[in-house]
Design a protein that fits this description.
heterodimer, A: 600 residues, alpha+beta, Penicillin-binding protein 2a (Domain 2), Beta-lactamase, seven-stranded mixed sheet, five-stranded antiparallel sheet, 22 helices, 38% helix, B: 368 residues, mainly alpha, globular
């Protein structure tokens, strides 16, 4: 048999490629040449992209929160418009027939005759549509596109920060994700952004031959758009509304409420107050409305629940107490004399209650939120061990980057040296022991304090996406609960802290006695965090900005907790008086609406 | 040197290589003028500038003994790798890819120049081997090729990364690597790819696709090929005439002056010129292979084989791509596409080949 040498094989390969190319050239240019010539001369090939509807967003019970509706936009291809060369007449026609005035941006692109399509007018009315189609010969290069628009339901209005909003991709998005096109809709914040991958779907495109009037004559090539996948949040829309209503009824101006299931860390409600109108935001705000929102001193756009860092105050004593028990600084029965003030060197640290606390155990110290008790315990525990437990609880750590964007500030000697170029003083440890000083956490972090106490010491990965429905596989994928770790505190000690939190509500000297008549046994901890440390005692500070922050964390039912709540009221003055009643209102309302049935 | 010496050098130049290349460079500048003047203004001036430099480079090489260059191949290789690493960190980002180094008015693409460097270092490393090539030597030059190819792939630039392997493939194949290794490698790759692919999740596949080929946007590439086909086909036999291509003038064609320059030429000049151009590439390739076959000195032989294989394959794949017969991977059409780096690299390669031929002729005269 004849055998090819390697050199001959290579030559054969080259000959083969050469002949394929020549045959193809003959096919395209000679055989089908006139066909392609006609297409190109009339230059009636157009490419239209088709934006698919985004997936719907539901709450945990299938309550619809966000969906897409089709709207009609008037678009134009500027290079065809330019060929008309009578832009003035066109402008007149647009105004007379459709009542549309050209924006400077559109005008400029017409004058330049750009290749990329431009949207001339969004949300065409039926009347405008009819008039356009009846007079389309006047508008060469113009066409009507179906554009899906995001709509939010009644329930969505209570959770604009959770849902976020959608819009056209930014220049940065376009640079980083080459598959995006300028006229695609993408999530810009909230779950719309986090779960954009599920929601966005796949855009389609269609290349067609059109006639002189822009009517489609033949489809050359088509790629179907694929609608986005629906997602189900862990949020309970009814509970979210209750949290909103309860906050509004409290009369407070600004704050956050987070409700979670302590047994798996599903987020049931996440409110940042005040809210903004999510629909208006998506549809586009006028400059005046923008200015109003931006100048609002209660910052409605800012998601305080996840991104606001505030000193936690006394709710932090839970972690210090748990750490002190675990490290055997104290036993559950150790009684410590806690007077009206505690001195170290020439510095004196006062108790919030000038009467002092007397000789008390850890549970009692939590009950009356005794500062002097925690000064002493915290100092013995030391900053390193306090921080060890803080991190064990998940504070200073992002447990789920789909939810949290901001890390809590957990100060340490190294941190202080780096940031402020100062050494760490005992005073800093003392301040830290009662959640003051440099420590700052988000209202969401506050749930990290209470969840492990409620569930016996377990840290779960927080969850906001319950499930998504894959259109491709036609099935629902449920997101699993993810157990991360134990907080490294003996269960027995957790129960001691739990008891202390019970006394906060039901004890004789409890700081949240207002919660005692809530319709379900619960346990909590108040916090009142100083904003300005250097104000003189008794100095009147009526200005809102100078008032203390109010915190309350709570879980219920006491025996088998199903709900853990953190309430933060910015400059709310008092955790017990202002924040706690909001939790009480949430409990009462959710029982009224049969969301939660006590004793079940 | 006196005039007589110059004459001796010039006599040793293979005109069957030099003239076709000058012809291609000339057409390239002309076509880029037509394809870009309406949109980018004086882009063609830049190309003209690089064309002049390139011709100068080719003519300079005639006077250089390539064997001296081989001794610097390791230095050039290290410089090349360093500049690829530099690009990774400080490179200029255009359309999501970091491929360029900015040098004042110009940008350079180190991955292109790497083709030239590989055509030096591979023959240098193989200068004393016995044929058929051993598996050990094959692996050595594979690693030498894979390092710059990987650095190019992560820019990301799939097209150039693939073309960097072409010299390796042709040289190893023609160096009589045993058949069992070829069959083994090809089978392994064919069986492994679908296996791995099927075990990936959808979003992973998309990510990989977007990663290795960001230029091909999911909407556009099929549409672009369609437009490219319309452009070429509408040229018919004689073309629409210089500067009269409507497809490219109306911006229908993507990258009309770079990767899709052939479509623009096909539209304006029609079948005859397209046929001539393709044939010129083919003839050029055959001529380079002919010298590779004839020259017995190993580095010289391998330079010719590698250069011929690279030039032909890159040109033909690019042309097949514009006609809808190959996937869109961003590779240029040698000598015709816009881009100083590509033009200068291929000019350096042709200069190298001319030097190999010149040295061969000189020694044959002396000893033959």
């Amino acid at each position: 048999m004849f055998k090819f040498s390697r050199f001959q094989v290579v030559l054969l390969f080259m000959f083969l490629l050469y002949f394929i190319i020549i045959f193809r050239l003959v096919h395209l240019q000679v055989i089908k040449g006139s066909y392609y010539r006609e297409i190109s001369e009339n230059n009636y090939v157009r490419l239209f992209t088709i934006n698919p509807p985004r997936g719907k967003i539901f709450d945990r019970n299938g309550v619809l929160l966000a969906y897409d509706v089709p709207t009609f936009s008037l678009s134009a291809l500027p290079y065809i418009v330019k060929k008309r060369e009578d832009l003035e007449q066109l402008e007149k026609n647009l105004k007379d027939y459709l009542g549309i005035e050209l924006s400077p941006k559109v005008q400029e692109s017409f004058e330049k005759g750009l290749i990329t399509k431009i949207i001339v007018h969004e949300n065409l009315t039926d009347k405008q549509l009819k008039r356009f189609f009846n007079n389309s010969y006047l508008f060469k290069g113009f066409y009507v596109e179906v554009v899906p628009k995001r709509k939010y339901t009644e329930y969505a209005k209570y959770m604009p920060h959770v849902l976020g909003y959608v819009g056209y991709p930014s220049k940065k998005d376009l640079r980083e994700k080459p598959y995006l096109k300028p006229d695609m809709i993408v999530g810009k914040s909230g779950v719309e952004k986090t779960f954009d991958e599920y929601l966005k779907g796949e855009p389609g495109a269609i290349a067609v031959i059109v006639d002189a009037l822009g009517r489609q004559k033949k489809v050359l090539w088509e790629k179907q758009a694929k609608r986005g996948n629906d997602i189900y949040l862990t949020i309970d829309a009814r509970l979210q509304k209750i949290a909103y209503d309860s906050f509004v009824e409290s009369g407070q101006k600004s704050g956050a409420v987070v409700v979670v299931n302590p047994q798996n860390y599903e987020i049931l409600a996440l409110l940042s107050y005040p809210t903004y109108n999510i629909q208006k935001f998506t549809d586009g705000l006028s400059a005046k409305e923008w200015k109003k929102i931006l100048n609002n001193k209660y910052k409605p756009l800012f998601n305080k629940a996840l991104n606001g860092l505030y000193p936690p105050g006394s709710i932090f004593k839970i972690i210090v107490g748990a750490g002190a028990l675990q490290e055997k600084i104290i036993t559950p029965y150790t009684k410590i004399q806690s007077g009206p003030s505690f001195s170290i060197g020439k510095w004196t640290y006062r108790n919030w209650n000038p009467a002092g606390c007397g000789e008390i155990t850890i549970a009692q110290a939590l009950e009356m939120s005794c500062d002097t008790f925690f000064y002493q315990v915290g100092l013995q525990l030391g900053v390193d061990r306090i921080n060890y437990y803080t991190y064990k609880f998940g504070i200073g750590e992002i447990l789920n980057d789909e939810i949290e964007k901001k890390r809590a500030r957990v100060p340490s000697p190294d941190w202080k040296m780096q940031r402020l170029n100062e050494v760490w003083f005992y005073g800093d440890t003392i301040n830290l022991s009662i959640g003051q000083g440099y420590l700052a956490i988000t209202p969401f972090d506050a749930t990290k304090i209470v969840v492990p106490i409620a569930n016996g010491g377990k840290v779960y990965k927080p969850k906001i996406l319950k499930a998504y429905f894959s259109n491709k596989d036609q099935r629902l994928y449920k997101m699993p609960d993810v157990f991360l770790r134990d907080v490294d505190v003996n269960r027995h000690f957790i129960n001691v802290i739990k008891k202390g939190m019970y006394l906060v509500v039901y004890g004789k000297r409890g700081t949240a006695k207002r919660m005692a008549d809530a319709p379900v046994k619960n346990a909590g901890k108040t916090g009142t965090a100083q904003v300005y440390r250097y104000l003189k005692r008794k100095q009147k500070h009526d200005k809102w900005e100078l008032k203390d922050h109010a915190w309350f964390v709570d879980f219920y039912p006491y025996k088998k907790p199903k709900y853990a709540v953190s309430v933060f009221v910015e400059h709310g003055e008092s955790g017990g008086r202002v924040a706690a009643p909001i939790v009480k209102s949430i409990i009462e309302k959710s029982i009224d609406e049969n969301i939660f049935i006590p004793g079940n | 040197m006196n005039i007589k010496d110059y004459y001796k050098f010039i006599k040793r130049v293979d005109l069957f290589i030099l003239l076709p290349v000058l012809f291609l460079i000339f057409w390239g500048t002309l076509s880029i003028y037509s394809a870009s003047v309406h949109e980018y203004g004086n882009l063609w001036l830049k190309q003209l500038f690089f064309a002049v430099i390139s011709v100068f480079l080719i003519l300079t090489f005639i006077f250089i003994d390539y064997r001296k260059l081989l001794n610097y191949s390791v230095h050039l290789y290290i410089i090349g790798i360093l500049s690829l690493i530099y690009v990774k960190f400080f490179g200029l980002t255009i359309l999501g890819a970091k491929r360029w180094i900015k040098l004042g008015f110009f940008t350079l693409q180190p991955s292109e120049f790497m083709k030239f460097v590989l055509l030096l270092i591979i023959p240098f490393m193989l200068q004393n081997v016995n044929l058929p090539i051993s598996i050990k030597d094959t692996l050595k030059i594979f690693v030498i090729t894979a390092i710059p190819a990987y650095l190019t792939l992560i820019q990301p630039d799939l097209g150039t990364a693939i073309t960097l392997f072409l010299p390796f493939v042709f040289i190893v194949f023609l160096a009589e690597i045993p058949k069992k290794y070829i069959i083994g490698t090809v089978t392994a790759v064919i069986f492994l790819i679908p296996f791995v692919w099927n075990h990936l999740k959808d979003y992973q596949k998309n990510r990989i696709l977007a990663f290795i080929n960001p230029d091909a946007d999911p909407l556009g590439s099929a549409y672009h090929i369609l437009q490219s086909k319309i452009a070429i086909g509408s040229g018919m036999i004689f073309g629409k005439g210089f500067l009269h291509g409507t497809q490219s003038k109306l911006y229908f064609l993507p990258e009309q002056h770079t990767d899709f320059i052939f479509a623009s030429i096909g539209e304006e000049w029609g079948f005859i010129v397209s046929f001539v151009l393709v044939s010129v590439y083919f003839a050029l390739t055959l001529r380079i292979f002919y010298w590779g076959y004839k020259i017995k000195n190993l580095p010289g032989k391998f330079i010719c084989y590698g250069a011929g294989g690279l030039l032909a394959t890159q040109a033909f794949i690019n042309i097949l791509m514009t006609m809808g017969l190959a996937p869109v991977v961003g590779i240029t059409l040698p000598f015709l596409s816009y881009g100083g780096s590509s033009l200068m690299t291929f000019s350096l390669i042709i200069g190298l080949v001319l030097s190999v031929i010149s040295v061969y002729k000189k020694e044959r005269l002396q000893f033959g």
